[in-house]
Design brief:
375 residues, alpha+beta, FAD/NAD(P)-binding domain, D-Amino Acid Oxidase, Chain A, domain 2, 2 domains, 26% helix, globular, binds flavin-adenine dinucleotide
């Protein structure tokens, strides 16, 4: 029996995880197409690397826990390094946000293993934190990913399983003939496919727009800053996330990695261009919450894109409007945390045409109201 050809558009964490999971199942010719010269030029190489499975949305929490199992005990041969460091994570809240915060962090469907702690416990760990924290929970198993190791392990494993990875291969358009998806164009070159997976991050909806299949995915720009080494920062500090204030920080390279959690809807072309307002916002929040570090220089900073569907849930599975078209997109701010679960789900859909995952319908691309198709 001839193998079916699957083309995956995008070699970020979504495409890499799906390629690895699908290649583990065997039986497909898989080609991973990446427009850049490397797989980590966009969101997968521009994030905060925080492993946080506690989330107000129980669906996303479930996917994060499923993924944590993978990260804690990866399959034999996946990687010989630890994939994350469980430095612990404090979620904290200001007076204004504490009621809502205590509601969802007290819900066992939204977190696993969270310990409600007095704010004094957080202040003991981070004495430089300014007053104003009214509630806190501590998650000892959460922490900081080695994103490069995870991403490269997916890609290396996929390549070992026979996946062909082509860089500098920008997909210009999908190609439909007689209402059937038959392939795509990389530059002027046509590649035939039985299935195509859109795993193109902030560009995902643009690719489907080439055949007039709209998908409501919006990229939002966010900045991250890394300060110079600071003598008062301990390298074993936990991750701290202040709900309500929308500010987070963690130790990085002797200094701090922090974000003021700016979010601005952007076109992908503008999503990595830094913006002065976001720089000021992060500076203001640092002055408010970590005043003794307010003058720290942050020579490294960058912007990246978190891409969301309107309901902030991932878009994974087959597109009911066109046979052979699949999605793994809209991973928002949790794409590294949830990559094993979403890659597994997308691979199952492609390989078997169905999914037994309990959240398959919740994440299905067909959940959005049908848009007219002008093909
Ligand atoms: C500032 C910031 C902080 C974040 N912090 C965290 C965090 O702490 N923890 C966490 O879990 N997640 C975090 N995220 C989210 C996470 O980074 C993303 O959800 C994840 O990287 C998305 O992966 P992706 O593969 O969908 O997209 P990408 O990594 O952007 O990959 C998509 C790929 O598709 C390629 N592509 C696009 N168009 C084409 C085309 N036409 N042809 C061929 N290739 C194409 C792109 O070049 C790109 O390499 C953060 C994101 C940002 C921006």
């Amino acid at each position: 029996m001839s193998q079916k050809t699957v083309l995956i558009v995008g070699a970020g964490i979504a495409g890499a995880s799906t390629a690895w999971h699908l290649s583990q199942l065997g039986g497909h010719r898989i080609i991973l197409l990446e427009m850049e010269d490397a797989p980590d030029r966009h969101s997968t190489g521009r994030n905060a690397a925080i492993l946080r499975t506690a989330m107000p949305d129980p669906i996303l929490h479930g996917l994060a826990r499923e993924s944590l199992d993978f990260y804690q005990t990866p399959p034999l041969g996946f990687s010989d390094q630890s994939l994350f460091e469980p430095v612990g994570l404090f979620l904290a809240a200001t007076a204004e946000s504490s009621e809502d915060f205590l509601g969802w962090t007290g819900n066992p469907d939204c977190q696993t293993g969270a310990q409600r702690v007095p704010p004094s416990q957080l202040y003991e760990r981070i004495p430089q934190l300014a007053p104003g924290i009214e509630a806190a929970v501590y998650l000892p198993d959460e922490g900081v990913f080695d994103v490069a190791e995870i991403h490269h392990s997916f890609l290396k494993g996929a390549a070992r399983n026979g996946v062909e990875i082509r860089y500098n291969s920008r997909v210009e358009s999908l190609i439909v003939e007689n209402e059937q998806l038959i392939g795509l164009n990389v530059g002027a070159k046509f590649l035939e496919a039985d299935s195509i997976l859109i795993a193109a991050g902030a560009w995902a909806s643009q690719i489907a727009n080439t055949i007039n299949l709209p998908m409501p995915l919006t990229p939002y720009r966010r900045h991250i800053f890394v300060t110079n080494p600071l003598k008062d920062v301990q390298k074993d500090w936990p991750v701290v996330w202040i709900a309500g204030a929308e500010y987070y920080f963690r130790p990085e390279s002797g200094g701090l990695l922090l974000s003021g959690c700016d979010q601005q809807a952007v076109l992908p072309e503008a999503g990595e261009v830094s913006n002065d307002e976001a720089v000021s916002l992060a500076a203001e929040k640092t002055e408010r919450w970590l005043p003794s570090f307010a003058d720290a220089e942050a020579p490294f900073y960058w912007a990246g894109m978190r891409t969301f569907a309107p309901d902030h849930r991932f878009v994974v599975g087959p597109d009911p409007r066109l046979g052979g078209l699949h999605w793994v997109a809209g991973l928002g701010g949790h794409g590294i945390t949830c990559a094993p679960a979403v890659g597994n789900l997308a691979a199952e859909w492609i390989a078997t045409g169905w999914s037994q995952h309990s959240q398959a319908a919740t994440l299905a691309p067909g959940r959005f109201p049908a848009e007219p198709c002008a093909r």
